[in-house]
Amino acid sequence: MNNFFLALKTSFGFLSTIPVGITMEGLDELVKRSYLQTFAGVVLGIMIGVFAYITETVLPDQISAVLIMAFIYYLTGLNHLDGLADFGDGATAHGSLEKKIKALKDVALGIGGVGYAVLTLLALYASISALQAEAIFFSDNAAFILAVSLLVAEIGAKQAMLTIAAFGKPIHEGLGSMVINSTTFPRYVVSFIVGAVASVLAFGSIGVIGYISSIVTAFVILNVSNRHFKGVNGDCVGTSNEIARVIVLIVITLVIIASNNGYGGLVWTLL
Question: For residue 232, what are the β-bridge partners?
Fold first, then answer.
């Protein structure tokens, strides 16, 4: 049981800036229980949701959206955004496989990485703003709708990371390969169930749609990674976290738009 709590504590140290401390012993226990990353996503999502609910209640939408973005990266750190930038450098590099992997692992930031990171941040802001605008017509408590949407988005982001890890092949040794090699299918199924149940409890059928969209996103990124790098590393895993968060928010917004326009029954029928 002590090892379980050590892994649980390490999951927050690994996925957030919460100062719980990380040790190699803790990382070893976490990779044996990689499904705990989704549980950490639930807790982090609740914290982001509470923050969003407060700012949405007392501040104008645009200011609230910027503060929510700032809180997301204050809480979860910039490691995954850095991974996305590295992924952008590698994916946009021309030449052989070796040149692409060299660009992927290079610590210097190139124009490809800048482009990927800036576009993703703009997409995150746009998705939050669009959700704010549509939630007003969807519910009398728009702040709550935004909060649970961000919760589902964070759960989906963590499940996307585990999807890449479970179905990807590592291209070199490192922390990323530890997670990839240890995320077996049974552990992935446990994390999938944890994430699905949490998404349903948070936002019902819409939560399920958003959650599934994060997994589809992960498989798309996995396909792109395999085409460019013949496998995945920690940067590819981090990329799935950043992209999936945005995609979940966009999909939830589209579902809400459909419901606002009288197509809500179709959504429930499809489920």
Answer: 170
Tokens of 224: 């792109």
Same domain membership, residue 142 and residue 89 = yes
Do 14 and 145 share a domain, yes or no? no
Is the Cα dihedral 211, 51, 5, 200 positive or negative? negative
| Euclidean distance between the first and the last CA atom of the chain, given in angstroms as a whole number | 38
| Residues 9 and 69 occupy one common structural domain | no
**Which phi-psi region, left, alpha or beta, contains residue 120 (left: φ > 0; alpha: ψ -120 to 50)?**
alpha
Whose tokens are 């419901």? That residue is: 259
Radius of gyration for the chain, computed over Cα atoms and rounded to the nearest angstrom? 18
Tell me how far CA of residue 33 lies from CA of 9, 10, 61, 262, 264, in angstroms: 12, 11, 39, 43, 38
**What pLDDT, in 10s, does the model give residues 155-176?**
999 999 999 999 999 988 877 7
State residue 35 phi and psi, 5-degree precision. -60, -20
What are 40-96's pLDDT values in tens digits?
Answer: 999 999 999 999 999 999 999 999 999 999 999 999 999 999 999 999 999 999 989
Q: Domain of 15?
A: 1-33
Exposure b/e, 165-191, CB count within 10 A at least 16 = b? bbbbebbeeeebbbbbebbeeebbebb
Q: Is residue 27 located within the same domain as residue 143?
A: no
Q: Are residues 146 and 124 in the same domain?
A: yes
Q: Residue 270: inside a domain, yes or no?
A: no
